[in-house]
Structure formats: structure tokens, C-alpha cells
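Cross-posting from the chemistry board since nobody answered there.

I work mostly on the small-molecule side, so proteins are not my area. We synthesized flavin-adenine dinucleotide and want a rough idea of how it might sit in this target. Sequence and SMILES are below. Is it possible to get a predicted 3D structure of the two together?
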Amino acid sequence: MQRRDSRLIVICGAGILGLSVARELLKRGTDNIILLEKESKLGCHASGRNSGVLHAGIYYTPDSLKAKLCLKGNLMMREYCREKGIPILETGKVIVTKSEKEIPVLEELHKRAKKNGAEVNLINDKELKDIEPYAMTVERALYSPLTAVVDSKRVLAQLERDLVSSGSVKILKGVKFEGVKRNSEILTSKGAFRFELFINTAGAYADSVAHAFGVGKKYKILPFKGTYKKLRKDRSYLVKGNIYPVPDIRNPFLGVHFTRSIDGTVYIGPTAIPAFGRENYGFVEGVDGEALGILWRDAVLFFKNDKFRTVALTEPRKYINSLFFKDISKMVEGIRMEDIEPSEKVGIRPQLVDWEKKELVMDFLVLKDSDTVHILNAISPAFTSSFAFAEYVVDRFIFNREEVKGAL
Ligand SMILES: Cc1cc2nc3c(=O)[nH]c(=O)nc-3n(C[C@H](O)[C@H](O)[C@H](O)COP(=O)(O)OP(=O)(O)OC[C@H]3O[C@@H](n4cnc5c(N)ncnc54)[C@H](O)[C@@H]3O)c2cc1C
């Protein structure tokens, strides 16, 4: 029989990670969980604004958490969607090259994918055309049959229903974590809350929530804006599933790609343009008192880190339609500038930076200190990985109470 765990667990942030951790805790018999969410509804940030792609473990260096959790998470999320009747587009994905120079990177991705246990095939141009008739590549491409697409907001809504109906989880919306009052007590916009265990899944604010507990002080989040465009409806036949470029594997971003979403819209994006705020979705929307600090961090990294400099110099060009088009036109045959329409879809990728090393952190990161656990750098593919990630966090940091030395 499963042991009951009646500790009062407070989770800060009801994105896919907060919800998945709550779900995992429920499965282990925890029955006193409070999820705090500062917004009045779920899905306002990364978990409701992403591409909805269930990645299949291709890009990540073996031994990384991303490699361990992505494919497993993909399979778990598929099973959940099937069980709950949530539609999945099982269209697979191709990664295409734009020049001969990219072939060695494609081969490296193939090797990584194999090491990660992912199912991928190196295919030739003819095989590519059978899968994506309009995709173009130079000599070879990679095919990942297990890549799929879901409607991430539907997944969030289903999880919310499951958790609330269990009777063991309360989701308190419009309640913002504001600081630590004293040991085992936090301050929020709706008063103080006591906890026996606190789990930080605050996404773009995960660093500042951790800092309030004195944890992870050397890490800071830098926001990157991911904008999308879309294919005109009558030209959406050009893309059947997912067409991705070969990325710069020194950076955590996968490059602007084509994704057919559940409702049939083909999105092209996201970019990774340095943003002025953690929720800077519009031009000035979400720009607050932190903007100058963010600009300063961008400037420091620009001079100290050549990988960041490359992103900062190349990505903003994608605001210019002709340069955006130039970037994607080598991936799809016959695509024309007039086939591309603006889209309101936009998200922010909160990228963690190790400020001592002035390096972008490539992997997921979990820090623990006595009765608090902090999930940092939940960047892509954290949506895909979420169920496996939650299982890992609960196993390792909550039930085994493992301390992460040197993390503070
Ligand atoms: C443009 C874009 C495309 C992406 N595409 C994919 C993809 O195709 N596949 C994939 O696997 N991943 C993708 N990702 C990544 C994925 O969306 C994220 O990794 C994942 O959603 C992170 O989940 P989260 O729960 O950590 O963060 P969030 O969804 O941001 O949730 C954090 C929550 O915490 C709340 N919060 C913050 N501060 C406080 C506070 N002080 N008090 C209370 N609540 C607080 C926020 O309101 C928010 O609801 C993409 C991301 C972006 C931005």
C-alpha cells in the first residue's frame, strides 16, 4: 500500500512544471499541495506560448538531463494525451541542411541522437520528399518519426482538471510569491503561507524566487523573445509536419522552424532575440524597472561570450522580413515572401546564465537547500520532458532528500 505523505507542499508557479510536479507528488501519496500562480489563469507564459512540439531526444549531449528526460517525457506525454483524448499530430520531423557546411553537424546530431536512444534516420533527398514533399536539403537530412505536436494549452487545462478534482491539490490563482518571511513561511500578494516543503517552478522568475531563499545566487535569467510568423492558409500544404534547420549546437536554441499545429496553422519561428523584460511580449509590454539591468547583462555577455555575441548579432535581423525570409527560404521549395503572414504568437525563453563564468547554462538545473527545491533553466525541451522531469525531481530531491553540494 502507498504511504500517505501529509506534508504541506507549496509549489510556486503553475506552468507545465508546477502542474507536473504536483501530479507526480499526488501519484506518490502526497495529499496536501498548494500551487501558487500569480496570473488569473494558466498558460500565460512559456507553457502556453510554445510550439507544442514533443521533441524526441536528438540534440542533447549524452549524460545531460535533457538527454535523459526528453525522450522519456515525450513517451509519457503521448500516453497521457491518448488516455485523456487530447489530440496529437504524429507527423514526425525532418532536420534539413542549407549548405554542405552543415553536413558534419547533421552527422553529429545523428550520433548524439543514437547515444540518447532516440529513433532517427539519416535520409537522402528522395526519402525526404516522401516525408515532406516540399522540404529541401543538401545531400542528406535527419528524420525523427517520434516527434509530435500537441496543443499545450489543452494539456495544461487537462492537468488542472485532474489535479483539482483529486481534492488534494489547491491551485490558487492571482497569488504572487513576494519573498521569504521567516523559516518555512513565505510572503505573497495574498498574505503569508507556511510550508513544510517549497518547490520553485516559477519559470522566468525562478532565479529571483531562488535568490529570495539565498539559493543559486550566481545564476541569472536573461529573457529571449521568440516571435513567430505563419504560412498563408492556402499555402500551408507546403509543410506536412515539422521542418527544422541544423542548429548552432553551441547555443540552446534550435533555429527558426516550420511547425504544423493542431489546428492546421503552419507557424514559422521562434526567433531568439534578446528581450527587455521577462514578460516583454509586445514592443514595450512587459518592460519594467528591470530593463536597464537586463540591458547591462546583455552588454556584458556581448563582450565576454562569443556564443552570445553570435546570437545577439544574428537573431535581431529576423525582425526584418526579407532577412527572415532569406533564413527560411532554403528549407521549403517554392515558398514565396508573400506566403508569409504576421502572427501574434510570441513567447519568452528565460535562459539561465552562470554569471561567474558568463556562460549560458545549456542543461536543466535543479538546486536544493533544506526544505526548498528550485527548478532553474526549464527551457526547451522542458515542455516535452515535464512528466519525466517531475518524476526525476520528486525521486531525487524530494523523497531522497539529496543535497546538492556547492549549489548555493
Ligand atoms: C517560444 C517558445 C517555444 C517553445 N517551444 C517548445 C517546444 O516546442 N517543445 C518543448 O518541449 N518546449 C518548448 N519551449 C519550452 C517550454 O515551453 C518551457 O520549457 C516550459 O513551458 C517551461 O515551463 P515552466 O512551468 O517552467 O514555466 P512557465 O510556463 O513560464 O510557468 C511558470 C509559471 O510561474 C508563474 N510565476 C512566476 N513568478 C511567480 C511568482 N512570483 N508567484 C507565483 N507565480 C509565479 C508564472 O506566471 C507562470 O505561470 C518553448 C518555449 C518558448 C518560449
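Reply from a structural biologist on the board:
Welcome over. Reading the output above for you: Residues 403-408 have pLDDT under 50 and may be disordered. DSSP finds eleven helices and 22 strands in the chain. Happy to explain the C-alpha cell format if needed.
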